[in-house]
Amino acid sequence: MRVSVIGTGYVGLVSGTCFAEIGHEVTCIDIDPKKIEMLKKGKSPIYEPGLNELLERNIKAQRLNFSTGYESVKSAKSIFLAVGTPSQDDGRADLTYLKKAASMVAEQIEEGAIVVIKSTVPVGTSVMIKELIASITKKTFHLVNNPEFLKEGSAVEDFMRPDRVIIGHQNSSAFEAMEELYAPLVKQGNPIFGMSNLSAEMSKYAANCFLATKISFINEVARLCDLTGADIEEVRKGISSDKRIGGHFLYPGPGYGGSCFPKDVKALMATAEDYGMKLKIVSATEEVNDEQKYYLLHKVVSKFGDDLSGLTFTFWGVAFKANTDDVRETAAMTLAHKLIEKGATIQIFDPVASENYLEMMAQNKAIREKIKNFENKYDALNHSNGLITMTEWREFHAPDFNEIKSRLKTPVIFDGRNLYDSKTVLKMGLDYFAIGKKINK
User: Fold this and answer.
1) 120 phi and psi, to 5 degrees?
2) Helices marked H in 275-414
3) CATH fold match for the domains 2-195 and 293-433
4) Quick check: helix, strand or coil at residue 12?
5) Which end of the chain has less Cβ packing within 10 Å, N or C?
6) Which CATH superfamily is domain 293-433 in?
7) Of 28, 209, 225, 260, which one is the catalytic site residue?
8) What is the CATH number of domain 2-195?
């Protein structure tokens, strides 16, 4: 099948590349000429494990092409809209890019084309986009919602082996065409669910908000464990063994971030407000997460006091999660700002996300001047008063604690990901703070 994908961000680039990998003829379109030229050379503008290899293979096989123009839409049976829908100041999704892409597609589509909204959009967007396209073209087309469920850091694997595929549609032939498109990916029996466009739109937001709620829930329980003396690692094992609960997204940390959860939580709350309803659980999820991003700060202050002038702290990891270079809404940004405001300086090491982080922090010159980047995780500890683990990269899981101790001016670890065994760290002569873990000092 000939496929055009509008947008080459995480969703569009991964989707287009993976469609090509299973044999479809794909053209990915983006308005950024520098990005397109980079992609034509087989280089991904984002860090995603396995993606570069797929890019190179499918470009070489001439199944995957890139363009700044919309010419490929004329011959495409399916056109995927995978552009960004960022949060506006009021939390509502900004559909400017989606409407622009839909308008451009409308000028090019052929009779019977299937326009697929892959972007995460508020309930009812499909109605608006369908009316918009119909106002531009007289040709018959079908409008489908196909929300993505890709996790950054495992997006290729998630696409190639989906738990489920959701197709929102109003026409059986459009649904059947989408079934044909996805057939090679669901041979193991994972379901393709057909439903209304509105239900498909709601399913995406409901899924992300539920997962965000699990993260905030375990973080809040971890805080209570700190107060009571219970151990969150033991509690997590105790509850996650219940099949009704499960273990996914039940890991304490510095608060969720990234491009999806913060944005989608706000957008669903805004949708509810439009209908005169307040989503109390989702609102609490956001409130708890906002507080969680300051939780490590409280632990640093409890150790060193409120005035951190002259002190330096090292962040291991600045991406919002491992296996990605995405620093959007990362807790490492919030914590750095607060530590610097209290007089500290920051040293960082991240395997792939440092450049993006420093670019983001450069928006405030005074803050950026207080941050120094290192190419080696141990070098980043030199002259530092404490190590703060912010991202759960694999290379941080089993460090040389003797090396850590010898490099630090103050032998203390603030473990924002609960990576280490408390007894081991204490035995090595390091002070240790974690999130919700019982630590017998």
Assistant:
1) -80, 120
2) 280-292, 295-304, 331-341, 354-361, 365-368, 401-407
3) yes
4) helix
5) C
6) NAD(P)-binding Rossmann-like Domain (3.40.50.720)
7) 260
8) 3.40.50.720
